[in-house]
Automatic annotation (TrEMBL):
The lineage of its organism: Bacteria, Pseudomonadati, Pseudomonadota, Alphaproteobacteria, Hyphomicrobiales. Cell division inhibitor that blocks the formation of polar Z ring septums. Rapidly oscillates between the poles of the cell to destabilize FtsZ filaments that have formed before they mature into polar Z rings. Prevents FtsZ polymerization. The gene is minC. InterPro entries: CAP/MinC_C (IPR016098), MinC (IPR013033), MinC_C_sf (IPR036145), Septum_form_inhib_MinC_C (IPR005526). Pfam families: MinC_C (PF03775). The keyword Protein transport does not apply. One of its GO terms (biological process) is cell morphogenesis. Keywords: Cell cycle, Cell division, Septation. This is Probable septum site-determining protein MinC. It comes from the Bacteria. Residues 135-234 form the Septum formation inhibitor MinC C-terminal domain.
Amino acid sequence: MTKVLTDARSIRIKGRSFLAVMLSPDLPIDDWLIRLDDLAARSAGFFLGRPVVLDLTDLQIDRPQLKDLIAELAKRNVSIMGIEGARPSMLGTGMPPALKGGRSASDIEVQANEPADPVGKQAAAEPRPAMQSIVIREPVRSGQSVIFPEGDVTVIGSVASGAEVIAGGSVHIYGALRGRAMAGSIGNASARIFCRKLEAELVAIDGIYKMAEDMASDLRGQAVQLWLEDDAIMAEKLI
């Protein structure tokens, strides 16, 4: 029996773009996973709620190795939304879809910890004391990331939607916070987030996060400080 459609209401379809992180593994995979674990340990929440694309261009692995890699990433709470640069024969049922045509953004480079000098090797110079804070004297634009596990980050300007600031200490935004701010990324529950105008997509302190829809509506657009109390993110307006 043919069903006659009488409902004249249209179906609304909208286009929307999202910023995704591109992970580009290299061989040997086990060593690459160790470096990824190092990044996660120093920047808690780095992959939190973040769409991730796996770039296999020029990576010589077969389908079983790819499935193992995806499984290892899933153990680390890294969810792959798509794969770029893979041969069609490598993909199939139960695998992320093939993607192509993405637009490049700024690379996110995080340096690995320096290996210890061999015993008996004399240092060429006295080690410099670790920095405790950095100041970014320009806006952080969409697609950019500021990652500083060693201490506080201060931004003289705004943080755009699709941008993020990750600090081992506190985050200070002298402008609008429209992107993501993560403080205390390596285990600092006393870290705080300060901003002149709260319009954040996500805030996190010591691995505990709050999404935009979970924030009090009366704080949106206000000068705000956020801190951690009893494993919950608290917030109040700045006077």
